[in-house]
UniProtKB/TrEMBL annotation:
Principal place of residence: cytoplasm
Keyword field contains Amino-acid biosynthesis: no
Name under which the protein is recorded: tRNA modification GTPase MnmE
Subunit structure, interactors included: Homodimer. Heterotetramer of two MnmE and two MnmG subunits.
GO cellular component terms, semicolon-separated: cytosol
Subcellular location: Cytoplasm
Residues of the TrmE-type G domain: 222-381
Family annotation (SUPFAM superfamilies): P-loop containing nucleoside triphosphate hydrolases
MF term (GO), any: GTPase activity
Chain sites annotated for binding GTP: 232-237, 251-257, 276-279
PANTHER family: TRNA MODIFICATION GTPASE GTPBP3, TRNA MODIFICATION GTPASE GTPBP3, MITOCHONDRIAL
List of residues binding Mg(2+): S236, T257
Native species: Alicyclobacillus macrosporangiidus
Keywords noted in UniProt: Cytoplasm, GTP-binding, Hydrolase, Magnesium, Metal-binding, Nucleotide-binding, Potassium, tRNA processing
Length: 460
């Protein structure tokens, strides 16, 4: 129940300088009064305005001290949840923070559910649903680009766009309804023409938002990138070079890597999930054969393939086979060992690349990595760096609702263009309006809210 006073640890458990226990609700002042004492031993009389106090957290029953504390007092509605909120900032040891939480629960609060603080912020009107979802995007951001995009969405930039679409759609609905109710004031054909013109414009804007959803998914989840090639072409060396550290074992013995190795790396603001795989070749070794099968599976599952060839050795049948197997997939052909004399020309593989970029690097000396990173970025974003900068962190739920609204708008436009009655058009417009409303949480049901906020960390 929202009337309950809730509490949770809002910092990660572990040894740290500070640990925070957050309390929110109508009884937050009373709860803290039972567990906090000023240096004089007196109760802190929390004012009507915000305040910061130094003192001690105590066990509310035995009144034994637990730890010294900074108490942050934020009366509603000017707080994160728009309720009375207090934060007890203590030393960040695991047992210290847990003991403070236990004291607060004994004093009358209940343990918050995952995401319940942010859920209350939404229910109390402090933010809409898309802003609330952006909170977790901000926490989970792996790059500065993702962080900036999540921050902008948390400030309501995406919500403003959706509300603008809804306003235009509402005006269009009103025009259609007036024509239905008072046909003498307007001609149905004129209203239908307006539906077609405005509807097509709205569809185009939704298409732009859906393109942002693709970029937002990349910024949120990263790009699964498989480093593939035959044994001993330098796949593990390339992984280490991109990571700028020694992560994979590198030897001159073919087949050293027998399982997949995964690491995230931030390249030009885009999180890439690099997957180093076993060299793909025919082998009688049972363990290596399992690794080769996993490599082939990762190539199929990946969103980008870095196909590594050894430029210092003649092309082999395995190289040609891999060029054929990865054909048609988003890929960059990486010719490694450019610090050694070249054994072949790029023209020899041109028939297999279909215009895919070919980059020469030396994983050993790190030369050419800048060009490789540029091609990786271009393969993912098509070179549209500004699009990534401005992209909204649209998630799968929001994108699905946008697609639904787009479909309903297209049906309304089609109905209007073929002369269907306006009441049919009105039904489709209303459906699109409802889907856009759900994007920002208008009329969202309790089941949907529970599903969304259950994905949040405890204490947020």
């Amino acid at each position: 129940m929202q009337s309950d006073t809730i509490a949770a640890i809002s910092t990660a458990l572990g040894e740290a300088g500070i640990g925070v226990v957050r309390v929110s609700g109508a009884q937050a002042r009373d709860v803290v009064d039972r567990v906090f004492r000023l240096p004089s031993g007196r109760h802190a009389r929390l004012p009507e305005h915000r305040g910061l106090f130094y003192g001690t957290v105590i066990d509310p029953f035995e009144e034994r001290p637990i730890d010294e504390c900074i108490l942050l007092w934020m009366p509603g509605p000017r707080s994160y949840t728009a309720e009375d909120v207090t934060e007890l900032q203590v030393h960040g040891g695991i047992r210290v923070v847990e003991a403070v939480l236990e004291a607060v629960l004994q004093a009358g609060a209940r343990l918050a559910e995952p995401g319940e603080f942010t859920k209350r912020a939404f229910l109390n009107g402090r933010m809409d649903l898309s802003q609330a979802e952006a909170v977790m995007d901000l926490i989970r951001a792996k790059t500065d680009l993702a962080r900036r995009s999540a921050w902008a969405q948390m400030q309501g930039r995406f919500s403003e766009v959706v509300r603008g679409l809804r306003r235009r759609l509402l005006e269009l609905q009103a025009h259609v309804e007036v024509t239905l109710d008072y046909p003498e004031h307007d001609v149905e054909a004129v209203a239908a023409e307006r539906v077609v013109a405005v509807g097509q414009s709205l569809v185009a804007e939704i298409d732009r938002l859906l393109e942002d959803a693709r970029v937002g998914q990349i910024l949120r989840e990263g790009v699964v990138t498989t480093i593939a090639g035959r044994p001993n072409v330098g796949k593990s060396s390339l992984l280490n070079a991109l990571l700028r550290r020694e992560r994979a074992i590198v030897t001159d013995i073919p087949g050293t890597t027998r399982d997949v190795i995964e690491e995230y790396v931030n390249l030009r603001g885009i999180p890439f999930r690099l997957v180093d795989t076993a060299g793909i070749r025919e082998t009688e070794d049972v363990v290596e054969r399992i690794g080769v099968e996993r490599s082939r599976e990762m190539v199929v599952q990946s969103e980008l393939v870095l196909l590594v060839l050894n430029g210092s050795e003649a092309l082999t049948e395995e190289d040609i086979r891999l060029l054929a197997e990865t054909r048609g997939r988003p890929r960059v052909v990486v010719v490694n060992k450019s610090d050694l004399p070249s054994a072949w020309e790029d023209a020899e593989i041109r028939a297999w690349t279909d215009g895919d970029p070919v980059v020469h690097v030396s994983a050993k000396s790190a030369s050419g990595l800048g060009g490789l990173e540029e091609e990786m970025e271009r393969a993912v974003l098509g070179g549209e760096v500004r699009t990534a900068e401005a992209a909204y962190m649209t998630n799968a739920r929001q994108a699905d609702l946008l697609r639904r609204a787009r479909r309903d708008l297209e049906e309304a436009v089609h109905a209007a263009s073929v002369g269907a009655t306006l009441d049919v058009v009105a039904v489709q417009l209303q459906a699109a309006y409802g889907s856009l409303g759900l994007v920002i949480g208008e009329e969202a049901g309790e089941d949907l809210l529970d599903a969304i906020f259950s994905q949040f960390c405890l204490g947020k």
